[in-house]
Amino acid sequence: MSERPRRGAVHEHRAPSDCPVCGDRLAVTRLGCGSCGTELAGVFTSCAFCALDEAETEMLTVFLASRGNLRDLEKHLGVSYPTARLRFNQLLEKLGLAEPAEAAPTTPTREQVLAEVASGALSPDEAAALLASL
After folding, report:
1. pLDDT tens-digit profile of 46-84?
2. Is the pTM of this model over 0.85?
């Protein structure tokens, strides 16, 4: 038998990081206690990792669990090494931990992207996004 949530329980949802109207970064301005109802208002610094989506969080978790082994990340993602490295560099850029110029040498060629689509390692949508960035 599953446990029912207690009355007034707060369900955890991932907060959006970007404004749905203008696309700018959202600021955390209110914090609340789900237990007693206490609320704090102000402008609070948000966590850099909180802006990651579920797939990016999973990719970072796999990378850390494999002690920084990009080959393990490549296997987990089911893509080629250059694509795994590109995605990881994009993640580092999103976290503000890498220079944008670092991604340039590892960018796959158009032919590599098309070959990965043909092999099924890359979806057409992912390939379109990669090709648009070339």
Report:
1. 787 887 888 899 999 999 999 988 889 889 988 888 888
2. no
* Residue 32 parent element (H or E): strand 28-32
- The residue among 132, 80, 73, 78 whose CA lies nearest residue 106 is 80
Length of the chain: 134
Q: Kindly list the domain boundaries of the chain, sorted by start residue.
A: 15-46, 53-133
Residue 41 CA to residue 32 CA, distance in Å, equals 9
130 within 8 A of 121, measured Cβ to Cβ: no
Show the tokens assigned to 7.
């009355």
Q: Count CA atoms closer than 13 A to 9's CA, side-chain side.
A: 8
**Which tokens in the block code for residue 15?**
């907060």
Q: What's the CA gap between 131 and 134, in Å, rounded? A: 5
| Spatial distance between the Cα atoms of 4 and 58, rounded to a whole number of angstroms | 28
